[in-house]
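Dear Dr. K.,

Following up on our conversation at the group meeting, I've run the structure prediction for Small ribosomal subunit protein bS16 from Sphingomonas natans. I'm pasting the input sequence below exactly as I used it, so you can double-check it against your construct before we proceed with anything downstream. Let me know if the numbering doesn't match what you have in your notebook.
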Amino acid sequence: MSVSIRLSRGGAKKRPYYRIVVANSRAPRDGAFIEKIGTYNPLLAKDDAKRVVLDTERAKHWLSVGAQPTDRVARFFDAAGLKERAARSNLKKGEPGEKAKERAEERATKAAEAEAAANPPAPEPVEEAPAEAAAEETTEA
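The predicted structure tokens came back this morning:
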């Protein structure tokens, strides 16, 4: 039997409240579980101590037995110092689509044109060559 540590949802509609439970991985999300080891209330402020309440001793026990935490629970364990979580990144997902890239390029070119029209380049000062250098050039040619 594979065991996972995951969230079980409770609370009313649009007012979520989660229990951190140890459950059979095949059991339904809100179904039967083996043990409740904590709670998570996403409605509280991120710096609130009651946002995530965790029984660290039981969590250590279940991790030592081989229970696999879900990604969200692994974040909680990482914050509590129980288990190191490898950083995950999906660079493709965060990248804008083709149309968005085209619109961004168009905006950038329009902004550059508008700035160029508003701020014309200052004329460069013309430096006159010294008279001796001009005289040498005319005699050589």
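Two things stood out to me. The chain has a mean pLDDT of 86. DSSP finds five helices and five strands in the chain.

Best regards,
J.T.
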